[in-house]
Amino acid sequence: MPLLDQGVDSTIQTASDRCIVVFDLASSGHHPVYIQHLVSHWRQNHLPGTLQIVVSPEFINRHPKVVSLALETAQSQIQFTAITAEEYAHYQSQTSLISRSFAEWNLFCRYASQLQATYGLLMYFDSLQVPLLLGKKPPCPVGGIYFRPTFHYSEFANYKPAHTDRIRQWRQKLLLRLILRKPEVDTLFCLDPFVVKQIEQFGEPVRVVPLADPVQLHMCDRTVAEQLRQELGIGRDRTVFLMLGELSARKGMHQVFEAISALPSAARQRVCLVLAGAICVSERAEIEAGIQQVSQSATQIIVCDRYIREPQPFFEMADVVLAPYQRHVGMSSILVHAAAVQKPVIASDFGLMGELVRRYQLGLAVDAEKPGAIAQSILEALDGLDRQCDRQKMEHFVNQNLAENFVKTLSDQLLNQTQTR
Fold it and tell me: Which residues form the Glycosyl transferase family domain (predicted)?
């Protein structure tokens, strides 16, 4: 279902003849945000050639503002194309991850061919690795954004892999090495900067590029945060611990509830726990039971059960940001938002998040699976975490992950690749 004219000459004669297909069938989480950043940058800088963005019908319905950015572009250099409803239904009907990934890959190849792509960017490389290796040959060179490598986690402090983790990492490393030998694959963008060196040691002729996990910061005045604190009715002598985002078990909520319940009475009287985000529908009963348990103690607990469109006032208001995610793989923008306002985090010591907290001294990295460890970190936070934070390193970390760096890296590499072919 093309939204704009699709005609593109298949022979590249000038920069304006290039056609880059950006492919992403997801419509939630980071996916629309990444596409919005790329489209805005392409439009504002009048970059040459056509940017064809292939998405699901659901994306078109859920994100009309992002799609409308293409209509504001002179000569329609940016175009959205939705796969058909029948194609999307077939893709969603696949019952296994492997069959779903092959269905997704076949759709990419079909639309890249129809749109006469000169280059294809896979916005979620991770799910397409097996069909990239074993499926049909793509009609154009491809690059992809690699989200969640774990085979380098053994280099991180405190990492204790189980036997199944070692097998998974060996398989992940072998699969990636084989994929990078494919001549059609020429660029791998890595959201985890610490994996780049290991991949380069494979010795394959593929460009491996670290990519910022983009965060668009909308800083607010301190008075806005003070007003929010008053609106929420937070006690003046309370230390505010913030958990922001979808409220679910994987965010470590139950461990936090247990940790607060285990605090001495005097400490609980100094704590205000702010839960800002929509409660996961399938876990509502368990989470509300935990909230009820904490609220019966001397701890003040405030629940904002909704999607938070403007998160920055919450970060500005908080004294400490909680991110005790349970064995989370990859990055979290929570770390960037907290560092932007120089607020310490109490975060999981697992994987990339733990390494970032330690390396940039963003706060405390703790064993988030143990409520006792979280409780101890809360006690430390009540006395201040200034010694755990380095303000210069926090600022450097924020600057690394600004949205401008994400889109500049992507666009520079995409234009360079298509020019050299």
Answer: 226-384
Q: Decide: 344 and 381 in contact? Cβ < 8 Å.
A: yes
- Cβ atoms 327, 351 nearer than 8 A: yes
Q: What is the pLDDT of residues 4-33, one digit of tens each?
A: 433 333 344 456 678 999 999 999 878 899
- Directed axis angle between helix 371-382 and helix 253-261, to 10°? 60
Q: CA angle, corner 383, sides to 382 and 386, nearest 5?
A: 110
- Single-letter amino acid, residue 63: H
Q: Do 127 and 35 share a structural domain? A: yes
Predicted pLDDT at 299: 95
Encoding tokens for residue 390? 């380095």
Q: What is the CA angle 363-369-372, rounded to 5?
A: 75
pLDDT single digits (tens) 142-159: 999 999 999 999 999 878
Contact 140, 418 (CB under 8 A): no
Angle between helices 85-92 and 97-114 (to 10 degrees): 160
User: What is the three-class DSSP state of 191?
Assistant: coil
pTM confidence score: 0.87
Q: Do residues 271 and 241 make contact, with C-beta atoms less than 8 angstroms apart?
A: yes
User: Which residues lie below 8 Å from residue 398, measured CB to CB, with a gap of 6+?
Assistant: 215, 217, 336, 339, 340
- Examine the domain organization and report whether 169 and 242 are in the same domain: no
The domain total for the chain is 2
315 in the same domain as 170: no
Long-range contacts (CB closer than 8 Å, 24 or more residues apart) made by 220-225: 220/310, 220/312, 220/313, 220/316, 222/316, 224/313, 224/316, 225/313, 225/316, 225/317
Query: What is the domain range of residue 95?
Result: 15-214+402-419
Find where tokens 């932007």 sit.
Answer: 340
Least confident of 71-80, 173-182, 205-214: 71-80
C-alpha distances out from residue 167 to 102, 173, 202, 358, 396, Å: 23, 10, 19, 27, 35
In the block, residue with structure tokens 């469109």: 309
111 and 209 belong to one structural domain? yes
pLDDT band at 419 (very low <50, low <70, confident <90, very high): low
Do 155 and 240 share a domain, yes or no?
Answer: no
